[in-house]
Amino acid sequence: MQTAIPMPHETEALPQPYLLFLGDTVEPSYAKTAFGLRDWARDRCLGEFACETARVSTGLPFLAPVQARQAGARAMVIGVANPGGHIPAAWIPLLVQALEAGLDLIGGMHMRLSDIELLRNAARALGRRLIDVREPPLNIPVASGAKRTGKRLLTVGTDCALGKKYAALALAHAFQQRGVDVDFRATGQTGILIAGAGVPMDAVVADFAAGAAETLSPDADPSHWDVIEGQGSLSHPAYAGVSLALLHGSQPDVIVVCHEQGRERVLGYEHYALPSIEETIGLALTLGARTNPAIRCAGISLNTGALDPEAARAAIDGLADRLGMPVADPVRGGDAFKTLVNACLGEQAG
């Protein structure tokens, strides 16, 4: 496998296991970091902790920081990705409580733990660490637009927080199971916590974002695949910029479009209707062809988590018939997912 781009904390591994902090979250989609770690790094997650007003749970045991420390936890991870990436004042006493219990703090928010004076002072006095993983590498170049060797797959979405990371992780795992030389390339805080390396694309200065995507997925053997975690949406009223930079810099040979069944409005921007899947495919192929004219869409990753198995199967089959391409829910797997993997690799169903 190729060498992943290092993060600033590469010289020392993140302290594990984790206690997941859910803050005062009431919208499950904003707790995607906690859910991602629960689902893809379960062996590193001992429990969860939250404010009294939180209405979201990962289903892990609720542990006070002192209980988590006694159980072996070494750090509390902020498992929230709220709009703007801010840390509310109401969280601070609970974060200090974790430091006092002997836990380091790991954050992936836009607001850095190290920029909060109360946390900085407490950590210094207690001999604890504040680790911000949303720190891009230094000296990122401006994108060159030059074609790189190797093969690349990028997950793109009709919206934020609907399964791009899960799809990329599942596809990378499926490729590996087939003996394909593959790397998962993380582009957000949760993916970085899972993979241990990556680039937090939305923390990169705009002029260098496409260059960061190029650096994330360097020249590789012609048979090697990089499966790149998508971010945002090309049609999002706030986050389209990072999506376009990632598309241009990744130069994907293949895209998989991700959508959540039943979602009709942009998350957090309900006055905007979601674009159709057909629109999303067309826009991604048009814009992606600027840096890779051979770009193609292999199929759709459909998040059917809110449906029962029968309804999910009907939704998947109906969309596949409508679009004339593979559709699957990577979490459910099955023959539909095998067909999607075949299409990504350019193989015939068999």
TrEMBL record:
Pfam families: DUF1611, DUF1611_N. It comes from the Bacteria. Residues 51-136 form the D-glutamate N-acetyltransferase-like N-terminal domain. Gene3D superfamilies: NAD(P)-binding Rossmann-like Domain (3.40.50.720), P-loop containing nucleotide triphosphate hydrolases (3.40.50.300). Residues 142-334 form the D-glutamate N-acetyltransferase-like C-terminal domain. This is DUF1611 domain-containing protein. It comes from Stenotrophomonas tumulicola.
